[in-house]
Amino acid sequence: MAALSFAEYVKNKCYNGLYREAEFFVSENWESMNLYTRNVHRIGSVEMLDATIQRVYVRDLPGTRVAFEVGLELELNIKEGDYHYDEYDQCYPWIRIYCEGDLSCGLDDWKIIKVESYSRKNAPSNSLSDALVPYIPYEQLDNVATQLLKDNYPDALKITPYGEPPISVDPLALANNLGLEIHTQRICEDASIFGQMYFNDADTKMYDANLGQTVPIHINEKTIVVDPQMYLLRNLGSVNNTIIHECVHWILHRKVFLLEKLYNSDASCISCEVVGGAASSIARSATEKMEKQANQLAPRIQMPAEPFKTKAREYIARFMREANAKHSVDVMENVITALETDYGVSRQAAKLRLVELGFDEAIGTYTFLDGHYVKPHGFKKGSIKINQTFSLSAQDAAIERFVNPELHSLTETGDYVFVDNHYVYNAPLYVQPSENGALELTDYARAHMDECCLVFDMRVMSKIGDEYHTICFLNREPSDVTFEIKFHNGFQNAPQQRQVAMRMKLQKEALEIRKKMTDDPEQCMELLLNWRNMKYTDLGDAIGRDPKTISRTVKGTTRPTVETAALICFGLNLPPIISTKLMEVFGCPIHNSMNTKYQWINEALQVKYPEPLHEVQRYLAQYGVEL
Length: 627
Fold this sequence. Notes:
Blueprint: H1 6-29, E1 43-60, E2 65-80, E3 88-91, E4 94-102, E5 111-117, E6 127-128, H2 141-152, H3 171-177, E7 181-184, E8 193-198, E9 202-208, E10 213-219, E11 223-226, H4 229-233, H5 236-263, E12 269-273, H6 284-302, H7 305-323, H8 332-343, H9 347-356, E13 367-369, E14 372-374, E15 388-389, H10 394-403, H11 405-412, E16 416-419, E17 422-425, E18 431-433, E19 439-441, H12 443-447, H13 449-452, E20 456-460, H14 466-475, E21 483-487, H15 497-516, H16 521-532, H17 536-543, H18 547-555, H19 562-571, H20 576-585, H21 596-607, H22 613-621
Parallel strand pairs: 7-11
Antiparallel strand pairs: 1-2, 1-6, 2-3, 2-4, 4-5, 8-11, 8-12, 9-10, 13-14, 15-20, 16-17, 18-19, 20-21
């Protein structure tokens, strides 16, 4: 079916009446219309030959009524009024005709309010698209949500006293206030349709899990159907969000449905799929706009701006005081959890809402990578964009190091190490050993990521709308969405000069050691053991090898495997510039190897060398590599 168009419907429904009104307007007002002609010296008479509807602007009215302004281009025949001449000409002025009508009766009651000469104007306020979807600029979303609550659930806008929970929106009560009923029913077998808003009575078919097949069912008008799988497969926040999502369709998109009904008498509902798109026959662009608006407004209705911000500030202050925390990022997980509980929303929704309302420290909270949540972290406001991140998986980190020469150069010197799913500047202010010896970000680093960590651009590879992309960027929760990670700019966030000087000193020391290394394994090992103040027995204990075995390897009695040579490098915590040379001296060069296992070992030698062996082994084990 062709894309639904209110303008096309008006052309078919109202053209004759508009033509007669235009003809009358010209006959009564042609002298004041400022008609332009090249040939006629003085206009004597004007005849309308034709009229074409060129523009239809539509504006929302209460109930199912709409106001529409029609821009009509006229074809006029102008005759000379001075008897000395016998001239005529054509001109094509526009007029604007203001009308109103009710969609529920197919505009059968439409009427003309007034007619005037056409002048260019901005789109009328409260305007609708040609498919009757409201125009809602992004910056007006909170205002629209607030107005919807004022009209239908005003208690949710109240600021509760300190220490008391906020007034959350009960989705069942909101639906009841709108005169809507909730019906729980499996909609389709694969549960891909999570909700439907029925505007008309309908005899349809839905899936019966007990019978294992679709069965006939009657649904009354003004009914929201929610798939019960939502309660099993998703959390309470998603179920609440679904009901409010459908309520938004009822409030804002009834006119879209009524327009479809004019084209398709069998239409009865708007269906919403798990992927975020509606499945009705409405034109795709209109469908996407409706779903985007419902997705944007539902959380703003659940978490209205002013009460939500007030409660968030209260929780931040309270939790920081209780935990004696220095930085708000240290308590953001607790804040998100409290808000999640108070408002009956998902963790992701609470986090995203905080970010939308200016709490940037929430961005670094609840980021899920490599099978675990990354520790909360914060950064200076505005230091990264919405599609950028400091956090990435170990696999993305390795791939980007491999393909990006600039990133490779920053890490091959050991200046940046991969810790807690971040490339962080390798200095004591930013990294420290944990209780088990593994490196971790310092509290200072986690509160100042913009100062010490590299930035990466993210691009969603899956075919999903931009609004969902934003949610994924901020949350990075486990999902089927795939990302492309690209190194952004290693020098955008420069570490403090003091830390740079310290790194330069360590790098100079490592370079001096590297210059002293020859191609003799014994000479290299003696040099490195002295540098680390270790003996063969110490090294053997560190890597779980018999010191005599290490000695025989060094003397050339036995040829070392790549794994053994790498273990020696890890046991000595050798920076990349030194480990690369030692692997070559042992006859195990792997920095250009095409063997996947060796590539991962080399990756660990580059970015995990400061860490204890057990952490290196854990890092490699997730990629099937054993040392």
